[in-house]
Amino acid sequence: MPLDSSNFPLVWMHYDSGPDHDHDKDFAAFEASLERGAPFVILTDSAPSEDHAHNQEEKKRTSLWMKKHKMALRTLVLAMIVIEPSAAKRLAFKPFGVAFAKFWGYPLRLAATREEALGIAADLLAERAGRAPA
User: Fold this and answer.
1) How far apart are the C-alpha atoms of 35 and 58, rounded to whole Å?
2) What pLDDT score does 25 carry?
3) How far apart are CA 39 and CA 129, in angstroms?
């Protein structure tokens, strides 16, 4: 899940990582975004596929990391927005969103296009800043 925070508060996540991917780097990048202390939105146009599985060690590590950063995740991450052009796939993602939000502490939102996702992100950031959404 490589992260790109060069356009913070829009943080882009990518799921297309190889088998030798460095998860330490991913967690460090996520922590760096949290350490900014400002609200942000995670966006992705490469949602995990059905065969995107983690071994038991990775699951445990992720769970421990999430628990350690639970308050910051709930406070600073406004949502993860998945860009998925397929209406059928967006519909299939909805039940996953409930479990996702319960585990990570922030909601999973769905968008059909990059423009729609950026609009959702702008609205969430504006609401947090106390401004009316566009």
Assistant:
1) 23
2) 85
3) 9
